[in-house]
Task: structure prediction
Amino acid sequence: NAGVTQTPKFQVLKTGQSMTLQCAQDMNHNSMYWYRQDPGMGLRLIYYSASEGTTDKGEVPNGYNVSRLNKREFSLRLESAAPSQTSVYFCASSESFRDRLYNEQFFGPGTRLTVL
Amino acid sequence: DAKTTQPPSMDCAEGRAANLPCNHSTISGNEYVYWYRQIHSQGPQYIIHGLKNNETNEMASLIITEDRKSSTLILPHATLRDTAVYYCIVRVAGSSNTGKLIFGQGTTLQVKP
Result:
């Protein structure tokens, strides 16, 4: 049981380049999330997917797109990277919020992205 | 979701109890208190949650005041591996909520030998 996995672990981009961050979970969770964390800051929610086939914006969605490919996978795309998107990106998943009173989220190890 | 206030940093001696406070004076009746921690460079890890009763699990205890305006996370015997940033989060649980967590800046706990 790997939990939540993210690829790549590290990435360096030039301004204007595009890339996709991959996330997968093997816990049969319905909900998945993408967060970013800037140095010395807490996590901020970029996008989330409450269930397969749905996606919604979080606090800081500008400059990003997401795809919930299937129940296991949730990808984050930067179409035209900017230096302000230099950050650590965390993916998380949780069971369906309808089934449980609380919502423990399980986090991946993160992707460290630098945009030059 | 209610806003939380935590001290930016705290120290604790190894083997002693670490008591991390959190103020949430605007908490609503249906909002839970959650605690997560983030060990350096890793993803956050769930610790415990509660509504109004005190809670205990294998990691920690959560004490919530009777008026629910503040809470304290207690690590009973802190070890060096408990050095981390601790986040107190208040949010609604259940079918009316999409499960989003709003993280503040947390408390950096340094456990010293």
